[in-house]
Request: fold
Amino acid sequence: MNGGRRHFRPVPLVLSRIVFFWGEVWKCWRLTLDWTVQVYIAIPALFIGANMYRDAWLHPPSWFAAVPQQTVFVLLAAAMLRARARTFADYGDGLFLRRSARWTRPMIAAGLAYTLLVRLLTAAAVVALLAPLLDLRFGWDAATGAAMAGAAALLGYAWTLVRDGLERRRSGWRRVAAVWVARLMLMAAWVAGMTVIRSGASFGLALAALIAASCLLTWLRLRAKGTFLHEVAAEREAYSACVRFLLMEAGGARSVPRGRKPLLSLRRNLFRRRGTRERIAELWIKAKLRDPENVQALLTFAAIGSAAVALPPPGLGLAVWPVSGLFALFWLHGQWKQWEGERYVAMLPWPPLALREAEGIGRRALFLPLFGLWGLALGCKIGLLYGGAGWLAVPLAPAVGWAAGRYLDSVVSVYLQFRKRKRKAQTGERPSGTEEEEARENA
Amino acid sequence: MQEGADFRLRVRIDEAGYEPGKPILRDLFFEVRPGERLGLLGPNGAGKSTVMKGLLGQLGHWKGQIDWNGLTERESSDRSEDGIRRMAYIPELPILYERFTLWEHLQLAAAAAGMPEDRFGERADRLLDRFRLRKAKHEYPVRFSKGMQQKVMLIAAFLLEPDLFLVDEPFIGLDPGAVMELLAALDEERARGASVVLTTHVLDSAERLCDRFVLIHEGGIAASGTLADIRRVAGCPDGTPLFECFRVLTQEGAERS
Reply:
């Protein structure tokens, strides 16, 4: 009974929420990190990584000499300027707890202390990972590394409070723009400041300034009113950020748009033909292009695919090109299926074949430019290697890619239909009216 | 089609539920006539929403028969797609997609119904005006208030011009003006010949709005018919409000069980 009473105080309550939060995140990660992943991927990766780290220290690679000190500052700042202020606010707190300043301030203070602690641990981890470079290239000792980690942590902490203030005061695209401008400004100021500061005394002054700024921002944050709903939203975002990567395909971590209107309005028609299937495909593409995670994934596909096609010798690049295309097509199919399963989409009475045909149109509209881009990368590689007539590959490869991409897409379509029918036959499920029509069509 | 069929929809549910072997509904039979408002009433957990899901072909377990204008659908869990396309469902809680604007929600519904774009534009604009949402047409409905979200559901349903409206708890979340608009819009659709099946707990409103009632209790029908029929079954004198009949019938059911 007494234990329960002790637990129901602001700081213990926040501590229990921190434990609960990480427990929930771990539960999600555990879904992926099963024993096969641990044995075949995680442990070998750790082993290889540890050996590479040891090798870098014992036999420093030649590229160490070309790394400027600013790279370290940029990496530290990049790790710090991703964070957000945590308060572990819960929607239910609005009922009673958040009506009393005796609860509100200690809870927020405990959350901010956690934020600072995590910044410290993250900065220390980054410094530890870069230790061979810092030691051998720049001659930093442990005290310099610790001081730099401390300064970076304070920068990260001050950033979380600046971000919190900006997000509370702005909405929609203005919020996104303000956060990015502030982030870039702080990054530039940090890199420039750390480059200029050389003597111990000026570093001490900079550290004192960061401490003073952090204290001031903390004081202002603790006095701020009407922050509860923002805190709840920030907590939801923080959880989503921790598990989004894992649940992306499952649709488990949903991110609600921040603004009232889409940043990318896309009101114009994307297809000239205006049949049912083109209209459906167009709406799918618009939805996908508005989802930042999807855009990020598409850009990653574009970058990694281009590198995979262009970096190896042309023969190997040519072989990698369709394989990368298959990956992209299956990923796009997964994205379509996820969208098709959305409750609003599933609720509508679809005419037979409409969704299947629309998927083909939508998938091709996103896939062909990507596949063509990889062809362009391969063409450039061939041009650079052979020169002269080799440059003809620059216009030819994307054109060939367009035709080859369409063929690849049709192969994937046939395979997906075959797989669907086979699965239904295995489960004994009766084909729907749509599938009966498809079967008739195929016959 | 049978000659002289005087009903829009005739439903016979032998057994239905979310999982095979676990029926929630048993031996239900009711008809909906063209232009009629039928109230599906019942206490919490009686099976009203399950009936609607069954009509929409969303139940895992379904044994029964549905006749549309006298034409029988096949008896199976796979409900006829054509039959489902004749219905529009307005759920109790709004169902929305995060990455669509209001206009795109309607565009998708129209595309699903095969409605030409010019007709869609004209009809959607009229409905947006009617429900006072024109200004918000390019905004995300997930950021709307609950009442506004419910209006999005109403507009999407009215857009499709179905033969039958399935309206789950229509009076929840809507302001009085919106309820009036909903009823007026439903009346216009009824004049066209569309029927309405609505579930509600607000019995006073149901008494005023519905032509006939089906009182569902514990997965079966406790009484059905006009208000006079319900009074007779409940053993209540003329003038007894539906609320009292409902209380008597559900209490009797509880005592029997």
Observations:
- The mean pLDDT of chain B is 84.
